[in-house]
Amino acid sequence: MDFLTRNAESQSFQESKLVLHPRELGLDPEEIPLFPLSILQKDAACLPTPLVTAAREVLAPCTGTHIRMKLPGTSALPNGAPVYMERIADALPAHLLIENSVANVKDRELTLNVVNVSGRYAQIPRGAPLAIATLCEVITEEDEGAEE
């Protein structure tokens, strides 16, 4: 997602933004706010935490793999919705580096590219809860027309 970039001026979790570049989309510049998962949980009452599934449970040193994150059945995120992984908690050891910061929802799943940056074998906890810190608000053409 080349047209999605993080607003480098804001390092604060609460102020994080994604910027749509108008040149690539033919739109006026717009900032799309990101929302902490806790706000979505308040709106959706009891939103379950997504779970990690992996193609491999153990990564050799300096190798990578794709990790799939299954969204709960109650998730209202449609296919193609961009999700920004700002902070991952309680799922991956610190020596596993997540290379992609934005993933798109596809069949209630997100795919993360994970690399073992340590000199040792690393285990991926299968079925561990994965906390998504922020989710992109999905703005459609109808929503933009309604705001005007």
Radius of gyration: 16 Å
Order of helices and strands: EEHEHEEEEEEEEEEEH
Average predicted local confidence, pLDDT: 60
**Alpha-beta classification:** mainly beta
Domain count: 1
Structural overview:
The chain is mainly beta. It has one domain. The chain contains three helices and 14 strands. It has helices spanning 22-25, 37-43, 141-147, and strands at residues 4-6, 17-20, 30-36, 51-54, 58-59, 64-70, 82-84, 88-89, 96-98, 102-104, 109-116, 122-123, 131-132, 134-136. The longest helix is centred in the first third of the chain and has 7 residues, at 37-43. Mean pLDDT is 60; it is low at 1-48.
Search tags:
3 helices, mainly beta, 148 residues, 4-stranded antiparallel sheet
Topology of helices and strands:
Layout: E1 4-6, E2 17-20, H1 22-25, E3 30-36, H2 37-43, E4 51-54, E5 58-59, E6 64-70, E7 82-84, E8 88-89, E9 96-98, E10 102-104, E11 109-116, E12 122-123, E13 131-132, E14 134-136, H3 141-147
Antiparallel strand pairs: 1-2, 2-3, 3-14, 4-6, 5-12, 6-11, 7-10, 8-13, 9-11
Short description, anyone?
The chain is mainly beta. It has helices spanning 22-25, 37-43, 141-147, and strands at 4-6, 17-20, 30-36, 51-54, 58-59, 64-70, 82-84, 88-89, 96-98, 102-104, 109-116, 122-123, 131-132, 134-136. It has one domain.
